[in-house]
Amino acid sequence: MVIGSFLATVIVGAIAGWLAGRIVEGYGFGVLGNIVVGVVGAFIAGLILPRIGFSVGGGLFSAIIHSTLGAVILLVLIRLVKRA
Q1: Residue 66: exposed, middle, or buried by beta-carbon count in 10 A (0-12, 13-18, 19+)?
Q2: Nearest 5°: phi and psi at 53?
Q3: What gap in Å lies between CA 42 and CA 26, rounded to an integer?
Q4: pLDDT for 8-64, tens place per residue?
Q5: What Cα–Cα distance (Å) separates residue 74 from each residue in 2, 4, 33, 68?
Q6: Residues 39-64, buried b or exposed e (16+ Cβ, 10 A)?
Q7: Interhelix angle for 30-48 vs 60-83, to 10°?
Q8: Any residues with CB less than 8 A from the CB of 48 and at least 6 apart, and which?
């Protein structure tokens, strides 16, 4: 089951990173970069969203939404740091 979980994480990360790159225009990092942005975004969302009371439920679709929101937050932070 470990390989299945890893594969699901990579797929969700890739989709979330790609979506976040589309939402925050001008940020595309390629396939591997999008996976990393999506996975790190999921981690960020896991830390931030429950603390503010935001929940999207369970399942694959909600995991993609959750990861995408975190990835958007990450990309906005990267944009702010690059401007400074």
Answers
A1: buried
A2: 85, 20
A3: 21
A4: 888 888 888 888 888 887 666 777 887 888 888 888 888 888 888 887 778 888 888
A5: 27, 26, 13, 10
A6: bbbbebbeeebeeeeeeeeeeeeebb
A7: 100
A8: 70, 73
Which is nearest to 42 in space by CA: 18, 70, 12? 70
Q: 45, 66 in Cβ contact below 8 A?
A: yes
Instruction: Supply the pLDDT for residue 28.
Output: 65
pLDDT per residue as tens digits for the range 61-83 = 888 888 889 889 888 888 888 88
- Distance linking the first and last C-alpha atoms of the chain: 44
The torsion angles phi and psi of 28, rounded to 5 degrees, stand at -125, 130
